[in-house]
TrEMBL record:
Record protein name field: Uncharacterized protein
Organism: Euplotes crassus
Source organism superkingdom: Eukaryota
């Protein structure tokens, strides 16, 4: 048993009150903790690289601005991830899914790079047997650059589609609306 002074009881009561206020701002009604995405180092690196918002204690407002300006129809995953009411468990699941999808995206990107580079010279040779001059070189190069950009655009669309399909059940859970749709 710890003996306390009469002044200590007041300090203990103040500490309990402070703990209740802290819990009220950092958890929902069921006691689940909020994610506080603005405290993540990656968020600071991406959206506050010169530390201007951090110095002004405005990182939370920056995260809310990103949430408001993201379109639900195009970037559903990002809209859910930057939701100020996102719970810590959901954020961890979303981050885990993003890491998995990012690895698949990188693998597809490497495959596209090797495919384009590996087929460029055979295509250039095949075209040079029929056509002569620099026009042939520039035409094949432009065509292969077009294929390269389209392949990577398709890869990015696949990544976004997979992320959006994972986050779609969370839109209803959090009641997220698009601020841009009329």
């Amino acid at each position: 048993i710890i003996m306390t002074e009469p002044g200590d009881q007041k300090t203990i009561a103040e500490a309990k009150l402070l703990a209740r206020e802290y819990a009220k701002h950092n958890s929902d009604d069921q006691g689940n903790l909020y994610a506080k995405i603005w405290e993540v180092p990656e968020f600071r690196e991406a959206f506050d690289y010169n530390m201007g918002y951090e110095k002004k204690n405005m990182l939370k407002y920056r995260a809310e601005a990103v949430f408001r300006h993201t379109r639900l129809s195009k970037q559903l995953f990002q809209k859910v991830y930057y939701n100020p009411n996102l719970l810590l468990d959901d954020e961890a699941n979303m981050r885990k899914h993003y890491v998995t999808e990012s690895g698949s995206h990188d693998l597809r990107s490497t495959f596209i790079n090797w495919l384009v580079v590996g087929t460029y010279f055979p295509a250039l040779y095949a075209a040079s047997t029929r056509f002569r001059g620099w026009g042939c070189f520039f035409a094949v190069t432009a065509g292969w650059y077009f294929l390269y950009t389209q392949g990577h655009q398709l890869n990015n669309n696949i990544l976004q589609k997979n992320l959006n399909s994972f986050a779609s059940p969370l839109v209803e859970k959090y009641g997220i609306i698009d601020h841009h749709d009329n």
